[in-house]
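pinned: reference chain
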Amino acid sequence: MTPFTNNPLTRPVEILIVEDDLTDIKLTQRSLERNRVLNNLHITRDGIEAMQFLRQEGDFSDVPRPDIVLLDLNMPRKDGRETLRDIKNDPNLKAIPVIIMTTSKQETDIEGSYLEHANSYVTKPVDMEQFQKVVETINAYWFTVVKLPSD
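pinned: its structure tokens
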């Protein structure tokens, strides 16, 4: 099987993971590798770092613009709810698709995320095999079916 790419230039998909849990980061990395998604994976550990990355500030001055953001809601310093709001209120960032990947099943979080213009809301399973299936589903939809915006 050939690794997937989402454009005719066969460039890797730029993925930003905003996640504070190292286990979830590693599971996502492994799942993307197993699904053979041609990607460059970037990781920030909270909303403050994520916004610096997205705005290419400080240590992130020469990072690429992500094609998609995988965003956890529950993080220290600046949580995913605030980060989502900041992304979608920024005219330079709002077109970047944001997938909420969180353990929260609370209806207020689900509804609130969509009201703030999240593109998808996925509840992370605790079981490793189920987590793999979730990432496979994200891969099948976001990296093979959907046409992502370019810079």
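why pinned: The beta strands are 13-18, 39-44, 68-71, 98-102, 120-123. The first strand starts at residue 13 and ends at 18.
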